[in-house]
Amino acid sequence: MTAGDHEQPGVPGDLRGSGDLYDMAKALAIEMVWIEITLKTVRTYCPSSGLRVRLATVHAAFDNFFCLVASCFLLWRRRSRKQHVRRKSRRYSHGVAVMFNEPVTIIAGDFQTAWLEAVGKLESSNWELSNLVVYIRDPAIVADGIHNRVTAFAEQEDLLTPKAVAYTIFPEQLYRKGGSADDLFRRYNRKEGFFDRVRTTWGTYFRRFTKYKTPSGDVNQLGKIIDALRDRQNVSKAAYIMVVPCPGGENVRPLGGPCLNYVAVQAKRDPADDTVNVGLLAVYRNHDFLERAYGNYWGLCNLLRFIANEVGATPAPLTCISSHAYVANKKTALKQFVAGL
User: How many domains does the chain have?
Assistant: First the structure.
């Protein structure tokens, strides 16, 4: 509190900022006290009965006016306190801040349905959600009709196409041409190779998966996981991860950095026939559902199928967690497009 501030007893601290009415009522009360003193003084030293009657009338009028002002002030203070309590109740629930929504879960058979349901959830939540969890049962299902229409919508609205987004995670066509993981890694990362044609300011996700820079040299995170999963004697349930951000350099970056932060490759052996099921868990710090999420889901599904194919496993479900999911632009166009599918 500065030297010019005055404590207002009985009023919550964050209500003192609306103190114009409070100060005015307080000043009026002081003024009424002086009027009372003046009237009593005049009544004492003025013997004229006519004047005394007129002063009594004025005194009664001032008393009535003062009671009215006092009543208005008490009503204002009572209402202000109720508003203060309501504001606090909106901000806190049992003493815990509730600025973030509870987790929103979507379970879908394929990534296209999951994306459509997520857009619907965002539309009903003012186009912004925290803690969105999407579970995709079958990463192999793609409806060509929907896919073609999403691609056409992206081109019409001057957005990145699903293929452009998905290929930052996994270059499916390049893998089909080569036919093996080793050939894919070589063709992608060689000088003037595929990466140099598609790179962004910070790189691509597949580049980070296959040529992650560390102080001791580049690491092929994806290649190491594939090699480990091929060893059927030591299949671990929770040991295979790929990190995207550079150590210490991209942990605080609102814009311009990778939004996908972490991918866990989940593996589980089926004791009945000794087969291995492989799934993915991906975590996004920021997720744009207008231009990115559809392609992200498609690329992650293709990455999962690639890993399963290389290690002779069965593709399991994909789980994607979006810490912050949103649509910032072209909301009306997206709403109309989704409604027409």
Answer: 2
Structure token digits, residue 247: 């150590």
DSSP 195: H
Residue-level length of the chain: 341
Instruction: Decide if 43 is inside a domain.
Output: yes
Mean pLDDT over residues 11-31, rounded?
A: 53
**CA–CA dist 281, 283 (Å, integer):** 7
Find all residues with CB under 8 Å of 156, minimum gap 6, and list them. Answer: none
Please say if the pLDDT value at position 126 is more than 70. yes
Quick: pLDDT tens for 295-321. Answer: 999 999 999 999 999 999 999 999 999
Give domain status of residue 3, yes or no.
no
Q: Are residues 50 and 134 in the same domain?
A: no
**Which tens digit of pLDDT belongs to each residue from 127-146?**
999 999 999 999 999 999 99
3-state helix, strand, coil in the chain (%, to 5): 50, 20, 30
Widest CA span of the chain, in angstroms? 117
The neighbour count for residue 26, using CB atoms within 10 Å, is 14
Looking at the fold, whether 73 and 161 belong to one and the same domain comes out as no
Of 96, 112, 137, the residue at which a domain comes to its end is 96
Which structural domain, as residue segments, surrounds residue 28?
A: 13-96
- 212 vs 229: CA distance, rounded Å: 20
* Residue 62 in tokens: 């001032």
CB 25 within 8 A of CB 14: no
Torsion-angle region of residue 312: left (phi > 0), alpha (psi -120 to 50) or beta? Answer: left
In whole angstroms, what is the distance from residue 143 CA to residue 150 CA?
11
Domain boundary among the residues 96, 121, 148 is at 96
Residues 119 and 92 in one domain: no
Give domain status of residue 8, yes or no.
no
What span, in angstroms and rounded, lies between the C-alpha atoms of 295 and 164?
8
Structure-token match 């691509």, residue found:
204
Residue 165 to residue 177: CA distance in whole angstroms: 20
Phi first, then psi, for residue 186 (nearest 5°) are: -70, -50
| pTM assigned to the model | 0.71
Look at residue 340 in the predicted model and tell me its pLDDT. Answer: 95
Looking from the CA of 126 toward its CB, the CA atoms found within 13 Å total 2
